[in-house]
């Protein structure tokens, strides 16, 4: 029985890996462990560890790594210390990390420096911010790569990764998007006390490389929302550097009946709301990944997702009040072509399981090699 250790630090990455954890947790060949840290344990962001506990996974371990939003390096160091200690306790055969968070980097560092195989979910992607630097660093520290599409796989080859270690499984959250576990819209609206018939979704995150401008960017964004006449479901940002500016600006929306503000939403509940939204606005990857699958119009603000926003139907605007307001005026008339191929077909978990059941995977050399391009 192989011991598989998943690491999760945010509601977003848990949504991505939930189906992967689930498919292994009940399988006789694997013993699954989940290391929960980061935003999951912060009450300000919804204390989303509760969502993980509700999944009833067999082995869940929590660790508080938060220091302060301005000390990402110290948060990294603290996470390394806690994760390393836990690894020494359970001796995993494989560590699974996702994406481009500080916690992800900590997991890859601990695994690679302790001679433990590391698998990276959704490496090889581009975004243009410090997140991209972390993502590529994690890829170089990882032995196995589960990518969302062939383009991401090609980028890993450019980075010197071996083709035999790259597996295209799609984006795992697509599994949940089209599953039969999504609640009805009526259930979600009742649970969160939402009385809007029509609404847009707001998800706006800080850009760490533009932190000095984030206060002004957020002010412009909130002013554009207030000058509009639509209803909005607003979800708090992640806890990256600059998030305080966004949360503080959202105080201006709190007494306005057109806005319902939440620190976090259950992932399946969020998907139901997204599926039934008029549009999504902000700079979240949900506008690049999930929204096109549901045919939902997208207004992408600024640079956070710019290099990933290749879908033709995405409306890209800068941070100015004027551009955001102009996009909002016409967004409900914007027609979107649904996509079903960019990030997989909803079978990521089965492809992931199939790969882990292949004995050849466990023969991958812990000592990585750099493969040069011809």
> In DSSP terms, counting alpha (H) and pi (I) runs of 4 or more, how many helices?
14
Q: What is the typical, i.e. mean, pLDDT?
A: 93
The major pleated sheet works out as: 7 strands, parallel
Give the helix proportion (percent range): 25-40%
Low-confidence stretches: none
Account of the 3D structure:
The chain is an alpha/beta fold. It has 14 helices and 13 strands. It has helices at 11-25, 49-53, 72-90, 102-113, 130-141, 150-158, 173-177, 185-191, 214-227, 243-249, 267-275, 290-294, 321-330, 348-356; strands at residues 2-8, 30-36, 60-62, 94-98, 117-121, 144-147, 166-168, 200-203, 232-235, 259-262, 279-282, 298-301, 314-317. The strands form 2 sheets. Strands 3-2-1-4-5-6-7 form a 7-stranded parallel beta sheet, sandwiched between helices. Strands 10-9-8-11-12-13 form a 6-stranded parallel beta sheet, with helices on one face. Helix 9 links the parallel strand 8 (200-203) and strand 9. Helix 4 (102-113) packs parallel to helix 5. The longest helix has 19 residues, at 72-90. It is globular, with a radius of gyration of 20 Å. The chain starts with a strand and ends in an 18-residue tail after the last helix. The model has no long low-confidence stretch (mean pLDDT 93).
């Amino acid at each position: 029985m192989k011991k598989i250790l998943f690491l999760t630090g945010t509601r977003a990455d848990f949504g991505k890996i939930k189906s992967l954890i689930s498919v292994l947790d009940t399988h006789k060949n694997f013993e699954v462990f989940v290391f929960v840290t980061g935003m999951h344990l912060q009450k300000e962001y919804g204390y989303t560890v509760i969502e993980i506990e509700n999944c009833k996974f067999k082995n869940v371990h929590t660790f508080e790594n938060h220091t302060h939003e301005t000390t990402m390096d110290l948060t990294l160091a603290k996470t390394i210390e806690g994760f390393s200690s836990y690894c020494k306790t359970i001796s995993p055969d494989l560590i699974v990390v996702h994406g481009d968070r500080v916690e992800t980097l900590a997991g890859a560092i601990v695994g690679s420096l302790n001679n433990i195989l590391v698998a990276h979910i959704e490496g090889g992607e581009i975004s243009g911010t410090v997140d991209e630097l972390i993502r590529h660093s994690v890829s170089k520290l990882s032995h196995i790569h589960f990518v969302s599409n062939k383009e991401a796989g090609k980028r890993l080859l450019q980075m010197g990764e071996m083709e035999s270690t790259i597996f295209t499984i799609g984006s795992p959250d697509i599994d949940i998007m089209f599953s039969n576990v999504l609640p009805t819209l009526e259930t979600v609206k009742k649970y969160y006390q939402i009385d809007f018939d029509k609404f847009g979704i707001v998800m706006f995150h800080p850009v760490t490389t533009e932190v000095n401008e984030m206060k002004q960017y957020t002010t412009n964004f909130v002013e554009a929302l207030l000058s509009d006449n639509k209803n909005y479901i607003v979800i708090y940002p992640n806890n990256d550097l600059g998030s305080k500016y966004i949360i503080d600006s959202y105080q201006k929306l709190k007494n306005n009946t057109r806005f319902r503000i939440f620190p976090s939403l259950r992932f399946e509940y969020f998907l139901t709301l997204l599926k039934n939204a008029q549009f999504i606005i902000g700079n979240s990857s949900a506008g690049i990944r999930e929204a096109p699958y549901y045919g939902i119009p997208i207004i992408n603000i600024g640079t956070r997702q710019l290099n990933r926003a290749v879908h033709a139907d995405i409306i890209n605007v800068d941070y100015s009040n004027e551009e955001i307001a102009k996009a909002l005026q016409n967004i409900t008339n914007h027609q979107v072509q649904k996509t079903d191929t960019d990030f997989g077909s909803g079978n990521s978990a089965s492809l992931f399981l199939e790969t882990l059941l292949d004995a050849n995977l466990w023969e991958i050399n812990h000592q990585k090699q750099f493969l040069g391009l011809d």
